[in-house]
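[recover] target loaded
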């Protein structure tokens, strides 16, 4: 069996390649950077170091090869003969690879599944629509599957220089679990180590987004305000730790009201997540976790989506409001999303920005609460270069 993985980054190599190789697939990476493609073809292997904060083990992914993304004929030929296609390029790059996938499908005689390992809830259907625009109207696209995929493992680092012959090392958590939206798969179904095929995919997505991802973002944005550089150092700050637990609990209670306790989990699940954040071996930078704040402040995303679900259940999302206000302050000049966020607030004002970015009314409900918290931050509690030393002054009553 052969799998084509489009993208050889942290998730492409550090998760998808390792899992598929363990499942018996031969791996062909489609790589944008020629220097990385040349390295994989020369060395033919790489290392994944799996760490949980207590112990570490290394897995060698052997026998890999790569094709440059610019070598379109070779990429198309590989996809025509593949048994599975994976994308791990980032949601913003899916429009750039859709024409290649469309061309590959036109060379095929058999159906195939395309799994989108992207940080986007509707990545599978979105990619399918992009591919459809590149195909003739009468092409039988319905025989091919385009499924969104939810990955449990965080892979924050790659070590090594692809210009050299030493092995590249990807550092990540040990979990092999990933959930695939079964509604969009087509037979024959792939059999992969760690894969869960779910018909209730949105419940799994909301569990991940509104608990784990909400906590991760809360830790990053509050850690940024207090001057921390890594998630494992920020979570050891007692104030941040308490706020992260409370924010996750708010999301969890909203989930329980919507999907039941079996989906939402219990308090012990929250402490297991905290233990993941404490994993110093990941050395996960706050700037990485906090990047792209405009997307992460979206109406259905980790902070606002969790808060809206909590509000619908009659829960006051106080710490989620603190996290959302902190996200509005997050600034990294190297992050276009953060720069756009600040430009929009500065140009339009907070109210219109909240409506446009978050879908929130700054005069009512959660939107009003976020606006109040942001106002306290902007009025002098915090400014760029002036670290927030304590969250105590931000303990206010719900209004």
């Amino acid at each position: 069996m052969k799998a084509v993985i489009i993208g050889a980054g942290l998730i492409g190599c550090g998760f998808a390649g390792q899992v598929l190789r363990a499942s018996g697939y031969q791996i062909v990476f489609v790589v944008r950077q020629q220097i990385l493609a040349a390295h994989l073809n020369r060395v033919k292997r790489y290392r994944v170091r799996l760490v949980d904060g207590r112990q570490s083990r290394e897995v060698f992914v052997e026998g890999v090869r790569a094709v440059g993304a610019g070598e379109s004929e070779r990429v198309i030929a590989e996809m025509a003969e593949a048994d599975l296609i994976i994308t791990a390029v980032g949601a913003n790059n899916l429009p750039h690879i859709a024409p290649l996938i469309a061309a590959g499908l036109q060379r095929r005689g058999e159906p195939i599944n395309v799994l989108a390992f992207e940080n986007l809830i509707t990545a599978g259907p979105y990619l399918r629509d992009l591919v459809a625009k590149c195909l003739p109207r009468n092409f039988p696209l319905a025989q091919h599957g385009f499924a969104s995929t939810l990955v449990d493992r965080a892979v924050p680092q790659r070590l090594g220089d692809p210009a050299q012959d030493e092995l590249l090392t990807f550092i990540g958590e040990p979990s092999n679990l990933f959930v695939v939206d079964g509604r969009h798969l087509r037979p024959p179904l792939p059999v992969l180590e760690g894969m869960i095929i779910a018909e209730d995919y949105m419940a799994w997505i909301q569990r991940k987004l509104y608990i784990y991802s909400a906590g991760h973002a809360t830790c990053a944005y509050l850690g940024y305000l207090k001057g921390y550089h890594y998630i494992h150092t920020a979570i050891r700050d007692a104030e941040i730790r308490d706020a992260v637990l409370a924010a996750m609990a708010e999301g969890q209670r909203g989930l329980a009201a919507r999907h039941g306790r079996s989906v939402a989990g219990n308090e012990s699940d929250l402490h297991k997540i905290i233990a993941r954040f404490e994993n110093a071996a990941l050395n996960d930078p706050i700037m990485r976790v906090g990047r792209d704040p405009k997307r992460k402040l979206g109406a259905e995303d980790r902070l606002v989506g969790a808060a809206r679900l909590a509000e619908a259940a009659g829960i006051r999302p106080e710490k989620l409001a603190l996290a959302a206000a902190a996200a509005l302050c997050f600034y990294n000049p190297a992050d276009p999303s953060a720069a756009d966020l600040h430009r929009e607030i500065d140009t339009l004002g907070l109210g219109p920005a909240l409506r446009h970015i978050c879908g929130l009314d700054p005069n009512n409900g959660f939107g009003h609460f976020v606006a109040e918290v942001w106002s306290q931050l902007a009025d002098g509690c915090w400014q760029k270069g002036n670290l927030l030393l304590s969250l105590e002054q931000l303990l206010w009553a719900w209004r």
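[recover] notes: The chain has two domains: 2-199, 202-394.
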